[in-house]
Amino acid sequence: MITRVDHIGIACRDLAASIAFYERTYGFSVFHQEVNEQQGVKEAMLRINGTDDGGSTYLQLLEPLHAESPIAKFLERNGEGVHHVAFGTADVVAETEAITGTGVRALYEQPRHGTFGSSINFLHPKDCQGILTELVQSPVHE
């Protein structure tokens, strides 16, 4: 079962400049930063609301590590902006199976590593009204 909007992923060319924009403009602050080699990104999570014990909603700023990363390709095609919407779930495997059972395609056969050590999967944007959709099971924040 989907429990919340976990985050909105935003592709950016310069992570530090994007962080500065969101801090200056909205007063958001960085909650977590990491490099995800598997996804080919440097990322920062900025908490919009919630608390450390769960239920938070974030902006995820994503800068490509290299020209072959999916975020680099997205930036090349679309420029900076919203890349995906992510929904939190207590069980990413069961949620993926339930959704794919309706005819929506998942991008991965098995969940992959995400932010905070979460398990993630993506749903194909062509099956989700043009929106790349991520499912997130976070051991830290569920």
Please give the structural blueprint.
Blueprint: E1 2-11, H1 15-26, E2 30-36, E3 41-51, E4 54-64, H2 70-78, E5 81-89, H3 92-100, E6 112-113, E7 119-123, E8 133-137
Parallel strand pairs: 1-4, 5-8
Antiparallel strand pairs: 1-5, 2-3, 3-4, 6-7, 7-8
Features:
single chain, 142 residues, alpha+beta, 2,3-Dihydroxybiphenyl 1,2-Dioxygenase, domain 1, eight-stranded mixed β-sheet, 42% strand
| Major β-sheet strand ordering | 2-3-4-1-5-8-7-6
Enter the CATH topology name.
2,3-Dihydroxybiphenyl 1,2-Dioxygenase, domain 1
Distance between the termini: 12 Å
Query: The biggest beta sheet, please?
Result: 8 strands, mixed
Characterization of the model:
The protein is α+β, with helices and mostly antiparallel strands. The protein has one domain: 2,3-Dihydroxybiphenyl 1,2-Dioxygenase, domain 1. 21% of the residues lie in helices and 42% in strands. The chain contains three helices and eight strands; from the N terminus they run βαβββαβαβββ. The mean pLDDT is 93.
Question: What would a concise description of this structure say?
Answer:
The protein is of the alpha+beta class. Helices cover 21% and strands 42% of the residues. It has three helices and eight strands; from the N terminus they run βαβββαβαβββ.
